[in-house]
TrEMBL record:
Pfam family, one: Bac_luciferase
Domain Luciferase-like: 16-337
Organism placement in taxonomy: Bacteria, Bacillati, Actinomycetota, Actinomycetes, Geodermatophilales
Keyword Flavoprotein: yes
Protein name as annotated: Dimethyl sulfone monooxygenase SfnG
Source organism: Goekera deserti
GO function terms (MF aspect): alkanesulfonate monooxygenase activity
Length: 382
């Protein structure tokens, strides 16, 4: 398969995002040293570095209580706004849970953040995998497909409030009557409202993406796995005349030699925090296996996969800069628009990625006929 995402995107080069480490413990559940800090000062510097070397997006994580190696966490929407105000071009995606948020309240926050940042606010709607958070907060825990029905209605309401006057909805989960939000978020050609991302792996998640979301985030996948997901989402979106873009999670281990990169992976897994990984596995696999067709997130994840809790090793962005760049471009040919990257030591590894990997990606994309992205690094990184 060498199909681009849509005709509009046929010659568009890859976009890059990074996981914001606003949660303690880094991006792997391991006792290996991680020179990464979950505090705001570190993250403000990191956002400015990522913006300078060519990252277009950042995704703030959301957890509400201590769990599975993540003892401390900053709230995602407020943290995202802080990063937006600390940068000039970076788009920051705040992860939120329906069930914890009322869509009218989030729509108001999003409109304000969008104005304050010059139109750079985005949201990632998380349908929820952690039952313990909901029960600890006294909120009802819905079954898997019901969570996605609620998320779809949440997104429908969010977009309606952002774009319509006197918004009215009589839904199963949310109801609005002649609701006016002013000011609306900033809009521009191709952007009538802040971008809406979602994750998920199940059939319900894929169908929801095809009907209502702007972006579909996948856990780590090989080429065959992402082909299947893109095909399924497009099968729903295309008859509706909708365009959905695709993001892929990948944990990046870029080193001067292939042997060094794979030794780092070996050490991460060897030093895994086994009780934390097993606790996370028990929580997420009950969610994944609760789907009728067994296609839920993490349903087939191994222990090693779950050491990086979004299956990031599976994407195999591990090796020399040239090897990683070649794999990124191959995924782009298969329709992946954006790469959501995690790192062991965020600050220095994002600098290395910008200096050593991204220039090779751009060279390969230019040779293949992909147009440069508008979000070029502020300075030459090579």
């Amino acid at each position: 398969m060498s199909a681009p995402n849509t005709p509009d995107d046929e010659l568009q080069a890859s976009k890059f995002a990074y996981w914001v480490p606003n949660v303690s413990g880094g991006l792997v559940t391991s006792t290996i040293e991680q020179r990464t800090d979950w505090g705001f000062d570190y993250n403000r510097k990191l956002a400015r570095t990522a913006e300078a070397v060519g990252f277009e997006y950042a995704l703030s994580q959301v957890r509400y209580m201590a769990s599975y190696g993540a003892e401390f966490q900053h709230e995602s929407t407020s943290f995202s706004l802080g990063l937006l105000l600390a940068t000039e071009r970076l788009k920051v995606i705040a992860a939120v849970h329906p069930g914890m948020w009322q869509p009218g309240v989030l729509a108001k926050l999003g409109a304000t953040a969008d104005h304050m940042s010059g139109g750079r606010f985005a949201v990632n709607v998380v349908s929820g995998w952690f039952k313990g958070e909901f029960t600890a907060m006294g909120e009802p825990w819905l079954e898997h497909d019901e969570r996605y029905r609620r998320s779809e209605e949440f997104i429908t309401a969010l977009k309606g409030i952002w774009t319509e006057e006197g918004y009215t909805l009589g839904g199963d989960f949310y109801r609005f009557r002649d609701f006016d939000l002013k000011p609306k978020p900033l809009s521009s050609p191709g952007r009538p409202h802040p971008e809406v991302f979602q994750g998920g792996n199940s059939t319900a998640a894929r169908q929801m993406a095809g009907r209502v979301s702007d972006w579909y985030f996948s856990n780590g996948k090989d080429l065959a796995g992402i082909d299947e997901q893109i095909r399924d989402v497009r099968a729903v979106a295309d008859p509706l005349g909708r365009r959905v873009r695709f993001g892929l999670n990948g944990f990046v281990i870029a080193r001067d030699t292939e042997a060094e990169a794979h030794e780092t992976l070996r050490e991460i897994v060897a030093k895994a925090n086994r009780p934390a990984v097993e606790g996370f596995r028990d929580a997420v696999q009950q969610a994944g296996n609760s789907t009728g067709d067994g296609k839920g997130m993490w349903a087939d994840s191994s222990f090693e996969d779950l050491v990086q809790y979004n299956d990031g090793f599976r994407t195999n962005l591990i090796g020399t800069p040239e090897q990683i760049a070649e794999r990124i471009v191959e995924f782009r040919r298969h329709g992946v628009d954006l790469f959501l990257c995690g790192f062991l030591h965020f600050q220095e590894e994002i600098e290395y990625f910008g200096a050593r990997v991204l220039p090779v990606v751009r060279e390969l994309e230019a040779a293949a006929g992909f147009a440069p992205t508008e979000f070029a690094p502020a300075t030459a990184a090579r």
